[in-house]
Amino acid sequence: MWTSCWNICVIALLLPLGVIASPIPKRSLQTPTDFEVIIIGGGPAGLSALSGLARVRRTALLIDSGEYRNGATRHAHDIIGSDGVTPAYFRAAARDQISLYPTVSMQNGTIVDIQKINDTSFMVTDATGKAYTSQKIVLATGIKDLVPTTPGLPENWSKGIYWCPWCDGYEHRDQPMGLLSTIDQIPGMVEEISTLNNDLIAFVNGSMTPAVLQALGAKQPDWEQMLATYNVQVDNRTITAIERTQDGAVVASAVDKAEYDKFIIHLDDGTAVERGVFFTSFPHTQRSGLGAALGVTIVDGKLFSNFTTGMRTNLPGVYAVGDANSDGSTNVPHAMWSGKRAAVDIHSEFFSNAGSLRRPVRIYGW
Ligand SMILES: Cc1cc2nc3c(=O)[nH]c(=O)nc-3n(C[C@H](O)[C@H](O)[C@H](O)COP(=O)(O)OP(=O)(O)OC[C@H]3O[C@@H](n4cnc5c(N)ncnc54)[C@H](O)[C@@H]3O)c2cc1C
Ligand SMILES: *[C@@H]1O[C@H](CO)[C@@H](O)[C@H](O)[C@H]1NC(C)=O
Ligand SMILES: *[C@@H]1O[C@H](CO)[C@@H](O)[C@H](O)[C@H]1NC(C)=O
Ligand SMILES: *[C@@H]1O[C@H](CO)[C@@H](O)[C@H](O)[C@H]1NC(C)=O
Ligand SMILES: *[C@@H]1O[C@H](CO)[C@@H](O)[C@H](O)[C@H]1NC(C)=O
Ligand SMILES: *[C@@H]1O[C@H](CO)[C@@H](O)[C@H](O)[C@H]1NC(C)=O
Ligand SMILES: *[C@@H]1O[C@H](CO)[C@@H](O)[C@H](O)[C@H]1NC(C)=O
Questions:
Q1: Please, what sign has the CA dihedral across residues 45, 101, 98, 63?
Q2: What is the pTM of this model?
Q3: 357 in helix, strand or coil?
Q4: What is the pLDDT of residue 273?
Q5: Which of 82, 95, 263, 292 is most buried, most CB within 10 Å of its CB?
Q6: Are 226 and 186 in contact (CB under 8 A)?
Q7: Residue 301 CB contacts under 8 Å (≥ 6 apart), including other chains
Q8: Which residues approach ligand 1 with their CB closer than 6 A?
Q9: Alpha-carbon distance 173 to 175, whole Å?
Q10: More confident: 231 or 366
Protein backbone atom coordinates (compact mmCIF):
# COMPACT_ATOMS: atom_id res chain seq x y z
CA MET A 1 0.00 0.00 0.00
CA TRP A 2 2.74 2.46 0.94
CA THR A 3 4.82 1.50 -2.09
CA SER A 4 1.84 1.76 -4.42
CA CYS A 5 1.08 5.36 -3.47
CA TRP A 6 4.71 6.40 -3.06
CA ASN A 7 4.75 9.28 -5.58
CA ILE A 8 1.37 10.63 -4.64
CA CYS A 9 2.07 10.32 -0.95
CA VAL A 10 5.35 12.19 -1.23
CA ILE A 11 3.66 14.99 -3.14
CA ALA A 12 0.81 15.05 -0.65
CA LEU A 13 3.36 15.32 2.16
CA LEU A 14 5.30 18.09 0.48
CA LEU A 15 2.29 20.28 -0.15
CA PRO A 16 1.70 21.22 3.47
CA LEU A 17 5.47 21.60 3.93
CA GLY A 18 5.35 24.30 1.30
CA VAL A 19 2.74 26.11 3.36
CA ILE A 20 4.73 25.71 6.55
CA ALA A 21 7.85 27.03 4.89
CA SER A 22 6.22 30.36 4.08
CA PRO A 23 6.77 32.91 6.86
CA ILE A 24 4.17 32.89 9.63
CA PRO A 25 3.21 36.38 10.70
CA LYS A 26 4.18 37.02 14.30
CA ARG A 27 1.57 37.45 16.99
CA SER A 28 0.71 41.13 17.19
CA LEU A 29 1.39 42.55 20.61
CA GLN A 30 -1.22 45.24 20.19
CA THR A 31 -3.46 45.53 23.28
CA PRO A 32 -5.65 48.35 24.57
CA THR A 33 -3.20 48.83 27.43
CA ASP A 34 0.59 49.18 27.51
CA PHE A 35 0.90 45.60 28.78
CA GLU A 36 -1.48 42.76 29.38
CA VAL A 37 -0.06 42.26 32.86
CA ILE A 38 1.97 44.35 35.30
CA ILE A 39 3.75 42.48 38.09
CA ILE A 40 4.85 44.44 41.12
CA GLY A 41 7.78 42.82 42.93
CA GLY A 42 10.74 40.88 41.54
CA GLY A 43 11.38 38.23 44.18
CA PRO A 44 10.83 34.55 43.33
CA ALA A 45 7.02 35.04 43.22
CA GLY A 46 7.02 37.90 40.73
CA LEU A 47 9.78 36.35 38.61
CA SER A 48 7.91 33.05 38.45
CA ALA A 49 4.70 34.79 37.32
CA LEU A 50 6.72 36.66 34.69
CA SER A 51 8.31 33.45 33.42
CA GLY A 52 4.93 31.76 33.03
CA LEU A 53 3.55 34.71 31.08
CA ALA A 54 6.70 34.98 28.93
CA ARG A 55 6.45 31.34 27.88
CA VAL A 56 3.00 31.90 26.35
CA ARG A 57 3.91 35.29 24.84
CA ARG A 58 1.76 37.44 27.07
CA THR A 59 3.02 41.00 27.31
CA ALA A 60 4.10 41.85 30.83
CA LEU A 61 6.19 44.36 32.73
CA LEU A 62 7.75 43.55 36.10
CA ILE A 63 8.79 46.42 38.34
CA ASP A 64 10.93 45.70 41.39
CA SER A 65 12.22 47.87 44.22
CA GLY A 66 14.76 45.26 45.34
CA GLU A 67 14.01 45.03 49.07
CA TYR A 68 13.95 41.24 49.27
CA ARG A 69 12.88 39.45 52.41
CA ASN A 70 15.90 37.15 52.36
CA GLY A 71 18.20 39.96 51.21
CA ALA A 72 20.60 39.60 54.15
CA THR A 73 20.77 35.82 54.35
CA ARG A 74 23.97 33.97 53.42
CA HIS A 75 22.42 31.19 51.37
CA ALA A 76 18.99 30.02 50.31
CA HIS A 77 18.05 26.42 51.02
CA ASP A 78 15.36 23.85 50.33
CA ILE A 79 15.00 24.97 46.72
CA ILE A 80 15.71 21.81 44.81
CA GLY A 81 18.38 22.23 42.16
CA SER A 82 19.53 25.48 43.78
CA ASP A 83 20.15 24.42 47.38
CA GLY A 84 22.69 26.71 49.02
CA VAL A 85 23.06 29.37 46.32
CA THR A 86 22.97 33.00 47.37
CA PRO A 87 19.52 34.57 47.00
CA ALA A 88 21.03 37.25 44.72
CA TYR A 89 22.49 34.58 42.43
CA PHE A 90 19.16 32.78 42.30
CA ARG A 91 17.28 35.93 41.26
CA ALA A 92 19.99 37.03 38.79
CA ALA A 93 19.92 33.63 37.06
CA ALA A 94 16.12 33.86 36.80
CA ARG A 95 16.34 37.39 35.35
CA ASP A 96 19.00 36.31 32.83
CA GLN A 97 16.85 33.43 31.63
CA ILE A 98 13.62 35.43 31.46
CA SER A 99 15.32 38.30 29.62
CA LEU A 100 15.53 36.08 26.52
CA TYR A 101 11.75 36.22 26.05
CA PRO A 102 10.71 39.20 23.92
CA THR A 103 7.18 39.89 25.22
CA VAL A 104 8.20 40.62 28.80
CA SER A 105 10.45 43.17 30.43
CA MET A 106 11.79 44.02 33.85
CA GLN A 107 12.82 47.26 35.42
CA ASN A 108 13.95 48.57 38.77
CA GLY A 109 11.66 51.07 40.44
CA THR A 110 9.01 51.55 43.09
CA ILE A 111 5.33 51.64 42.30
CA VAL A 112 3.66 54.27 44.45
CA ASP A 113 0.09 54.09 43.17
CA ILE A 114 -2.34 51.74 41.41
CA GLN A 115 -5.60 53.10 40.01
CA LYS A 116 -8.43 51.20 38.40
CA ILE A 117 -9.21 53.00 35.12
CA ASN A 118 -12.29 50.98 34.13
CA ASP A 119 -13.50 47.37 34.34
CA THR A 120 -10.69 46.18 32.11
CA SER A 121 -7.72 48.36 32.95
CA PHE A 122 -5.38 49.58 35.65
CA MET A 123 -2.77 52.31 35.72
CA VAL A 124 0.31 52.08 37.93
CA THR A 125 2.64 54.99 38.65
CA ASP A 126 6.24 54.72 39.75
CA ALA A 127 8.19 57.01 42.07
CA THR A 128 9.50 59.06 39.16
CA GLY A 129 5.94 59.75 37.98
CA LYS A 130 6.00 57.38 35.00
CA ALA A 131 2.66 55.63 34.42
CA TYR A 132 1.90 52.28 32.77
CA THR A 133 -1.41 50.58 32.00
CA SER A 134 -2.38 46.90 32.06
CA GLN A 135 -5.40 44.64 32.29
CA LYS A 136 -4.15 42.51 35.17
CA ILE A 137 -2.10 43.32 38.23
CA VAL A 138 0.01 40.77 40.09
CA LEU A 139 1.00 41.85 43.58
CA ALA A 140 4.24 40.04 44.45
CA THR A 141 5.32 42.66 46.97
CA GLY A 142 6.45 40.39 49.82
CA ILE A 143 6.58 40.96 53.56
CA LYS A 144 9.00 42.59 55.97
CA ASP A 145 10.16 41.09 59.28
CA LEU A 146 9.83 43.44 62.25
CA VAL A 147 13.14 42.64 63.94
CA PRO A 148 13.54 44.34 67.37
CA THR A 149 16.14 47.09 67.53
CA THR A 150 18.06 45.45 70.41
CA PRO A 151 21.75 46.23 69.71
CA GLY A 152 23.39 43.50 67.60
CA LEU A 153 20.11 41.91 66.54
CA PRO A 154 19.09 43.74 63.32
CA GLU A 155 22.75 43.93 62.23
CA ASN A 156 23.19 40.17 62.52
CA TRP A 157 19.71 39.11 61.38
CA SER A 158 19.80 36.18 58.90
CA LYS A 159 23.40 35.32 59.77
CA GLY A 160 23.28 32.84 62.63
CA ILE A 161 20.08 34.52 63.89
CA TYR A 162 17.47 32.98 61.73
CA TRP A 163 13.84 32.64 61.10
CA CYS A 164 12.84 29.21 59.79
CA PRO A 165 14.27 25.75 60.54
CA TRP A 166 14.02 24.67 56.89
CA CYS A 167 15.92 27.73 55.66
CA ASP A 168 19.04 27.63 57.82
CA GLY A 169 18.54 25.08 60.60
CA TYR A 170 20.60 22.27 59.12
CA GLU A 171 23.77 24.42 59.00
CA HIS A 172 23.46 24.94 62.78
CA ARG A 173 22.23 21.51 63.83
CA ASP A 174 23.23 20.22 67.29
CA GLN A 175 24.59 23.64 68.29
CA PRO A 176 23.65 25.43 71.55
CA MET A 177 20.59 27.39 70.51
CA GLY A 178 18.72 30.40 71.86
CA LEU A 179 15.06 30.91 71.06
CA LEU A 180 14.03 34.57 70.80
CA SER A 181 10.34 35.35 71.12
CA THR A 182 7.56 35.86 73.59
CA ILE A 183 6.72 32.84 75.77
CA ASP A 184 3.47 32.09 73.93
CA GLN A 185 5.41 31.35 70.71
CA ILE A 186 8.03 29.09 72.32
CA PRO A 187 6.14 25.72 72.36
CA GLY A 188 5.44 25.98 68.60
CA MET A 189 9.05 26.92 67.89
CA VAL A 190 10.31 23.93 69.92
CA GLU A 191 8.11 21.59 67.90
CA GLU A 192 9.61 22.87 64.64
CA ILE A 193 13.24 22.77 65.75
CA SER A 194 13.24 19.60 67.88
CA THR A 195 14.84 17.36 65.23
CA LEU A 196 17.72 19.81 64.68
CA ASN A 197 18.74 21.11 68.13
CA ASN A 198 18.11 19.97 71.68
CA ASP A 199 20.24 22.34 73.77
CA LEU A 200 17.60 25.07 73.91
CA ILE A 201 17.29 28.20 76.05
CA ALA A 202 14.23 30.38 75.43
CA PHE A 203 15.04 34.05 76.06
CA VAL A 204 11.53 35.43 76.45
CA ASN A 205 12.58 38.97 77.39
CA GLY A 206 10.10 39.73 80.19
CA SER A 207 7.06 38.42 78.33
CA MET A 208 5.96 36.05 81.13
CA THR A 209 3.33 38.40 82.45
CA PRO A 210 0.16 37.02 84.07
CA ALA A 211 -1.96 37.93 81.00
CA VAL A 212 0.34 36.21 78.49
CA LEU A 213 0.72 33.11 80.70
CA GLN A 214 -3.03 32.84 81.17
CA ALA A 215 -3.69 33.05 77.41
CA LEU A 216 -1.00 30.44 76.73
CA GLY A 217 -2.40 28.12 79.41
CA ALA A 218 -5.86 28.38 77.90
CA LYS A 219 -4.54 27.55 74.43
CA GLN A 220 -2.06 24.86 75.41
CA PRO A 221 -2.60 23.62 78.98
CA ASP A 222 0.41 21.24 78.88
CA TRP A 223 2.95 23.80 77.65
CA GLU A 224 5.18 23.62 80.75
CA GLN A 225 5.32 19.84 80.58
CA MET A 226 6.06 20.05 76.87
CA LEU A 227 9.00 22.42 77.44
CA ALA A 228 10.29 20.19 80.24
CA THR A 229 10.11 17.13 77.96
CA TYR A 230 12.31 18.89 75.41
CA ASN A 231 14.62 20.16 78.18
CA VAL A 232 14.00 23.82 77.30
CA GLN A 233 15.24 26.35 79.86
CA VAL A 234 13.16 29.51 79.99
CA ASP A 235 14.84 32.83 80.81
CA ASN A 236 12.50 35.78 81.41
CA ARG A 237 15.18 38.44 81.87
CA THR A 238 15.26 41.46 79.59
CA ILE A 239 17.72 41.24 76.70
CA THR A 240 20.01 44.28 76.42
CA ALA A 241 22.29 43.27 73.50
CA ILE A 242 23.45 40.41 71.32
CA GLU A 243 27.14 40.37 70.55
CA ARG A 244 28.77 38.31 67.83
CA THR A 245 32.05 36.65 68.80
CA GLN A 246 32.46 34.30 65.80
CA ASP A 247 31.23 34.54 62.22
CA GLY A 248 29.80 31.36 60.72
CA ALA A 249 30.43 32.73 57.23
CA VAL A 250 34.15 32.36 58.02
CA VAL A 251 34.18 29.41 60.43
CA ALA A 252 32.27 26.92 58.32
CA SER A 253 32.65 23.47 56.86
CA ALA A 254 31.76 22.94 53.23
CA VAL A 255 32.13 19.18 53.78
CA ASP A 256 29.21 18.80 56.16
CA LYS A 257 27.38 22.10 55.49
CA ALA A 258 27.97 23.45 59.03
CA GLU A 259 28.31 27.13 59.95
CA TYR A 260 29.75 27.94 63.36
CA ASP A 261 28.56 31.31 64.62
CA LYS A 262 29.02 32.35 68.24
CA PHE A 263 27.08 34.99 70.11
CA ILE A 264 26.93 36.34 73.65
CA ILE A 265 23.50 37.45 74.73
CA HIS A 266 23.56 40.16 77.41
CA LEU A 267 20.78 40.37 80.00
CA ASP A 268 19.68 43.32 82.12
CA ASP A 269 21.24 42.00 85.37
CA GLY A 270 24.68 42.02 83.76
CA THR A 271 24.71 38.28 82.99
CA ALA A 272 26.03 37.06 79.62
CA VAL A 273 25.15 33.68 78.08
CA GLU A 274 26.91 32.13 75.06
CA ARG A 275 24.93 30.50 72.22
CA GLY A 276 25.89 29.27 68.76
CA VAL A 277 22.70 30.18 66.97
CA PHE A 278 19.32 31.83 67.51
CA PHE A 279 15.95 30.88 66.14
CA THR A 280 13.44 33.74 66.28
CA SER A 281 9.74 34.39 65.96
CA PHE A 282 9.03 38.07 65.41
CA PRO A 283 6.01 39.72 63.80
CA HIS A 284 6.01 40.80 60.17
CA THR A 285 4.09 43.21 58.01
CA GLN A 286 3.34 43.79 54.33
CA ARG A 287 6.32 45.28 52.49
CA SER A 288 3.91 47.47 50.53
CA GLY A 289 0.60 49.16 51.25
CA LEU A 290 -0.42 49.09 47.56
CA GLY A 291 -2.74 46.08 47.81
CA ALA A 292 -4.63 47.44 50.80
CA ALA A 293 -4.92 50.89 49.20
CA LEU A 294 -6.40 49.35 46.07
CA GLY A 295 -9.03 47.53 48.15
CA VAL A 296 -7.64 44.00 48.42
CA THR A 297 -9.14 42.33 51.50
CA ILE A 298 -6.60 41.90 54.29
CA VAL A 299 -6.70 38.56 56.15
CA ASP A 300 -4.46 38.39 59.26
CA GLY A 301 -2.20 41.03 57.71
CA LYS A 302 -2.00 39.21 54.35
CA LEU A 303 -3.46 40.05 50.94
CA PHE A 304 -6.45 37.78 50.42
CA SER A 305 -5.80 35.34 47.60
CA ASN A 306 -7.73 32.19 46.72
CA PHE A 307 -5.49 29.42 45.38
CA THR A 308 -8.53 27.48 44.12
CA THR A 309 -9.17 30.31 41.68
CA GLY A 310 -5.55 30.80 40.67
CA MET A 311 -4.44 33.35 43.31
CA ARG A 312 -7.18 35.84 42.52
CA THR A 313 -7.89 38.43 45.20
CA ASN A 314 -11.36 39.83 45.88
CA LEU A 315 -10.77 42.43 43.13
CA PRO A 316 -11.31 41.30 39.49
CA GLY A 317 -8.03 41.35 37.59
CA VAL A 318 -5.85 41.60 40.71
CA TYR A 319 -3.74 38.67 41.94
CA ALA A 320 -1.63 38.25 45.09
CA VAL A 321 1.29 35.81 45.17
CA GLY A 322 4.27 34.86 47.34
CA ASP A 323 4.82 35.78 50.99
CA ALA A 324 2.37 38.69 50.73
CA ASN A 325 -0.64 36.48 50.09
CA SER A 326 -2.98 34.80 52.55
CA ASP A 327 -2.61 31.12 51.66
CA GLY A 328 -0.48 30.50 54.72
CA SER A 329 2.92 29.64 53.29
CA THR A 330 6.09 31.76 53.16
CA ASN A 331 9.01 30.17 51.35
CA VAL A 332 10.66 30.27 47.92
CA PRO A 333 9.00 27.10 46.54
CA HIS A 334 5.58 28.53 47.49
CA ALA A 335 6.48 31.89 45.97
CA MET A 336 7.37 30.19 42.69
CA TRP A 337 4.29 27.95 42.75
CA SER A 338 1.88 30.78 43.47
CA GLY A 339 3.44 33.03 40.81
CA LYS A 340 3.15 30.27 38.25
CA ARG A 341 -0.42 29.54 39.29
CA ALA A 342 -1.41 33.19 38.77
CA ALA A 343 0.27 33.20 35.34
CA VAL A 344 -1.74 30.16 34.26
CA ASP A 345 -5.00 31.62 35.52
CA ILE A 346 -4.33 34.97 33.86
CA HIS A 347 -3.51 33.32 30.56
CA SER A 348 -6.69 31.25 30.55
CA GLU A 349 -8.87 34.00 31.99
CA PHE A 350 -8.17 36.16 28.96
CA PHE A 351 -10.04 33.51 26.97
CA SER A 352 -12.72 32.32 29.38
CA ASN A 353 -16.34 33.29 29.08
CA ALA A 354 -16.36 34.37 32.68
CA GLY A 355 -13.56 36.75 31.86
CA SER A 356 -15.03 38.02 28.61
CA LEU A 357 -15.77 41.41 30.11
CA ARG A 358 -12.09 41.83 30.78
CA ARG A 359 -11.04 40.21 27.52
CA PRO A 360 -8.59 42.34 25.58
CA VAL A 361 -9.32 43.47 22.04
CA ARG A 362 -6.33 41.71 20.61
CA ILE A 363 -5.32 41.53 16.95
CA TYR A 364 -3.48 38.29 16.31
CA GLY A 365 -2.42 39.02 12.74
CA TRP A 366 -2.82 35.41 11.56
C1 LIG B 1 16.28 35.30 57.02
C2 LIG B 1 15.44 34.60 56.01
C3 LIG B 1 15.95 33.49 55.35
C4 LIG B 1 15.16 32.82 54.41
N5 LIG B 1 15.67 31.73 53.80
C6 LIG B 1 14.89 31.01 52.96
C7 LIG B 1 15.38 29.79 52.39
O8 LIG B 1 16.52 29.40 52.64
N9 LIG B 1 14.54 29.08 51.60
C10 LIG B 1 13.25 29.48 51.36
O11 LIG B 1 12.55 28.80 50.63
N12 LIG B 1 12.78 30.64 51.87
C13 LIG B 1 13.56 31.40 52.66
N14 LIG B 1 13.08 32.55 53.22
C15 LIG B 1 11.75 33.02 52.81
C16 LIG B 1 11.88 33.75 51.47
O17 LIG B 1 12.74 34.85 51.62
C18 LIG B 1 10.52 34.23 51.01
O19 LIG B 1 9.58 33.19 51.06
C20 LIG B 1 10.58 34.73 49.56
O21 LIG B 1 11.52 35.75 49.46
C22 LIG B 1 9.21 35.22 49.12
O23 LIG B 1 9.30 35.71 47.81
P24 LIG B 1 8.41 36.92 47.32
O25 LIG B 1 8.72 37.05 45.89
O26 LIG B 1 7.01 36.72 47.75
O27 LIG B 1 8.92 38.18 48.16
P28 LIG B 1 10.40 38.97 48.18
O29 LIG B 1 11.43 37.98 47.81
O30 LIG B 1 10.43 39.60 49.49
O31 LIG B 1 10.22 39.99 47.00
C32 LIG B 1 9.25 41.03 47.05
C33 LIG B 1 9.75 42.15 46.17
O34 LIG B 1 8.69 43.10 45.94
C35 LIG B 1 9.28 44.38 45.95
N36 LIG B 1 8.27 45.41 46.15
C37 LIG B 1 7.50 45.62 47.24
N38 LIG B 1 6.75 46.71 47.07
C39 LIG B 1 7.05 47.22 45.85
C40 LIG B 1 6.62 48.36 45.12
N41 LIG B 1 5.73 49.20 45.63
N42 LIG B 1 7.15 48.58 43.88
C43 LIG B 1 8.07 47.72 43.36
N44 LIG B 1 8.50 46.63 44.01
C45 LIG B 1 8.01 46.38 45.25
C46 LIG B 1 10.29 44.30 47.07
O47 LIG B 1 11.23 45.34 47.00
C48 LIG B 1 10.90 42.94 46.79
O49 LIG B 1 11.96 43.05 45.87
C50 LIG B 1 13.86 33.26 54.14
C51 LIG B 1 13.35 34.38 54.80
C52 LIG B 1 14.13 35.05 55.73
C53 LIG B 1 13.56 36.22 56.44
C1 LIG C 1 -10.47 51.00 29.53
O2 LIG C 1 -9.28 51.78 29.55
C3 LIG C 1 -8.35 51.42 28.55
C4 LIG C 1 -7.07 52.18 28.79
O5 LIG C 1 -7.28 53.56 28.90
C6 LIG C 1 -8.95 51.69 27.19
O7 LIG C 1 -8.04 51.34 26.17
C8 LIG C 1 -10.20 50.85 27.04
O9 LIG C 1 -10.83 51.15 25.81
C10 LIG C 1 -11.16 51.12 28.19
N11 LIG C 1 -12.25 50.16 28.11
C12 LIG C 1 -13.51 50.49 28.29
C13 LIG C 1 -14.49 49.37 28.22
O14 LIG C 1 -13.86 51.64 28.49
C1 LIG D 1 18.35 46.45 39.21
O2 LIG D 1 18.44 45.84 40.49
C3 LIG D 1 19.26 44.68 40.53
C4 LIG D 1 19.23 44.08 41.92
O5 LIG D 1 17.96 44.02 42.46
C6 LIG D 1 20.67 45.04 40.13
O7 LIG D 1 21.47 43.87 40.08
C8 LIG D 1 20.67 45.71 38.78
O9 LIG D 1 21.97 46.16 38.48
C10 LIG D 1 19.72 46.88 38.75
N11 LIG D 1 19.63 47.40 37.39
C12 LIG D 1 19.76 48.68 37.10
C13 LIG D 1 19.62 49.02 35.65
O14 LIG D 1 19.95 49.53 37.95
C1 LIG E 1 12.70 43.10 74.70
O2 LIG E 1 11.67 43.85 75.32
C3 LIG E 1 11.85 45.24 75.22
C4 LIG E 1 10.81 45.91 76.09
O5 LIG E 1 9.53 45.43 75.79
C6 LIG E 1 11.76 45.63 73.75
O7 LIG E 1 11.95 47.01 73.61
C8 LIG E 1 12.82 44.88 72.97
O9 LIG E 1 12.67 45.15 71.60
C10 LIG E 1 12.72 43.39 73.22
N11 LIG E 1 13.84 42.71 72.60
C12 LIG E 1 13.72 41.56 71.95
C13 LIG E 1 14.96 40.95 71.39
O14 LIG E 1 12.66 40.98 71.81
C1 LIG F 1 8.89 38.31 83.59
O2 LIG F 1 9.43 39.60 83.46
C3 LIG F 1 8.46 40.63 83.51
C4 LIG F 1 9.15 41.94 83.18
O5 LIG F 1 10.26 42.12 83.99
C6 LIG F 1 7.77 40.63 84.85
O7 LIG F 1 6.78 41.62 84.88
C8 LIG F 1 7.17 39.27 85.11
O9 LIG F 1 6.63 39.20 86.40
C10 LIG F 1 8.20 38.19 84.94
N11 LIG F 1 7.53 36.91 85.02
C12 LIG F 1 7.94 35.93 85.80
C13 LIG F 1 7.11 34.67 85.76
O14 LIG F 1 8.92 36.02 86.48
C1 LIG G 1 26.87 41.75 64.22
O2 LIG G 1 26.94 42.39 65.46
C3 LIG G 1 28.21 42.95 65.75
C4 LIG G 1 28.15 43.48 67.16
O5 LIG G 1 28.10 42.38 68.03
C6 LIG G 1 28.55 44.01 64.74
O7 LIG G 1 29.83 44.55 65.00
C8 LIG G 1 28.50 43.40 63.36
O9 LIG G 1 28.71 44.39 62.40
C10 LIG G 1 27.17 42.73 63.12
N11 LIG G 1 27.06 42.15 61.80
C12 LIG G 1 27.77 41.12 61.32
C13 LIG G 1 27.45 40.68 59.94
O14 LIG G 1 28.62 40.56 61.96
C1 LIG H 1 -12.17 30.12 46.64
O2 LIG H 1 -12.76 29.84 45.41
C3 LIG H 1 -13.55 28.64 45.42
C4 LIG H 1 -13.97 28.38 43.99
O5 LIG H 1 -14.65 29.48 43.48
C6 LIG H 1 -14.71 28.81 46.37
O7 LIG H 1 -15.47 27.63 46.42
C8 LIG H 1 -14.16 29.14 47.76
O9 LIG H 1 -15.22 29.42 48.65
C10 LIG H 1 -13.22 30.34 47.72
N11 LIG H 1 -12.60 30.51 49.01
C12 LIG H 1 -12.65 31.66 49.67
C13 LIG H 1 -11.95 31.66 50.99
O14 LIG H 1 -13.18 32.64 49.24
A1: negative
A2: 0.91
A3: helix
A4: 98
A5: 263
A6: no
A7: 284, 285, 286
A8: 40-46, 63-70, 73, 76-79, 110-111, 140-142, 145, 158, 162-163, 167, 287-288, 290, 322-324, 330-333, 335
A9: 5
A10: 231
